[in-house]
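Please decode residue identities from the backbone states below.
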């Protein structure tokens, strides 16, 4: 059971990206990291993406993995997609270069790959990039997925509309009976306000049915150093000090240093979710069309993935 994996304190979760709808990439990433020992996968909430992840698990011959689908509301960056204003665009290429998902190619946005990280917006010298939310009603998204064998629903609760957050959380609780996950960061909240929010949102749920994914700095991974992962550890400490009956998952800027730093700081975490960094270290292999058929290429990527999973799991 997923609870057993979390209780072991050695749970590595691969984040394919809540907005990542590139079916080929999801299949490849799932196949690779399942072979590397990962047993928990965070994916976009759609039938097509779930089926792609299942194909990856079949390739890896893994039948004891758990799938988590991520949903969000308007205002949460995980459901945003980049849009380019071509009247302002000067074709400088800075957005193409900085996008970690290669979602912008020749100044055109591939929406199925965009994860809403915001890096292109910050890099654009002419303010030609903005974001639109593609959040959908949960009553439209969730019901078709309930019979597909998903194990966890993760709710990204970083919006500012608290009425909307609690309305959607109530809908998830009422309609899904598996493990629940809340992905939240401090954002504009004080530490006290974050704890009050988490206490309220978990107050009517049985103990240890909820994962709090402490999202230090959402989608900020990519670098492998202590500073990048510091906020993930700091946010997890706030959750730990609240002494809630929940599982704690670190995320947001997580990398190979996260487990080490968390242990140094006395954080008793149940798992670490790694997205940007986990995808980055294998991207040159996964981007190849022959990735799943070229044994040499696959095995080179597998060594990198295994090292990362082992580094997290050892701790």
């Amino acid at each position: 059971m997923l609870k057993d994996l979390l209780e072991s304190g050695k749970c590595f979760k691969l984040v394919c990206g809540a907005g990542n709808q590139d079916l080929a990439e999801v299949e490849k990433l799932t196949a690779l990291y399942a072979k590397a020992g990962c047993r928990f996968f965070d994916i976009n909430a759609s039938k097509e993406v779930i089926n792609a992840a299942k194909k990856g698990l079949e390739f890896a011959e893994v039948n004891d993995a758990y799938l988590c689908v991520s949903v969000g509301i308007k205002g949460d960056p995980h459901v945003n997609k980049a849009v380019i204003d071509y009247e302002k665009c000067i074709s400088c290429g800075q957005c193409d270069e900085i996008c970690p998902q290669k979602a912008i190619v020749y100044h055109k946005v591939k929406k199925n790959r965009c994860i809403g990280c915001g890096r292109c917006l910050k890099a654009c010298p002419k303010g030609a990039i903005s974001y639109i939310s593609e959040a959908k009603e949960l009553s439209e998204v969730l019901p078709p997925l309930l019979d597909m064998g998903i194990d966890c629903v993760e709710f990204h609760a970083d919006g500012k509309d608290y009425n909307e957050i609690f309305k959607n959380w109530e809908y998830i609780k009422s309609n899904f009976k598996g493990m629940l996950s809340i992905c939240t960061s401090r954002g504009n909240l004080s530490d006290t306000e974050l704890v009050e929010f988490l206490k309220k949102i978990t107050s009517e749920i049985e103990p240890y049915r909820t994962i709090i994914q402490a999202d230090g700095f959402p989608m900020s991974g990519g670098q492998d150093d202590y500073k990048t992962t510091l906020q993930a550890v700091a946010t997890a400490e706030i959750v730990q000090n609240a002494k809630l009956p929940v599982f704690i998952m670190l995320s947001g800027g997580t990398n190979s240093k996260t487990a080490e730093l968390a242990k140094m700081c006395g954080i008793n975490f149940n798992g670490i979710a790694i997205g940007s960094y986990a995808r980055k270290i294998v991207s040159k292999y996964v981007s190849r069309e022959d990735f799943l058929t070229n044994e040499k290429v696959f095995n080179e990527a597998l060594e990198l993935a295994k090292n990362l999973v082992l580094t997290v799991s050892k701790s």
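Observation: The first strand starts at residue 11 and ends at 15.
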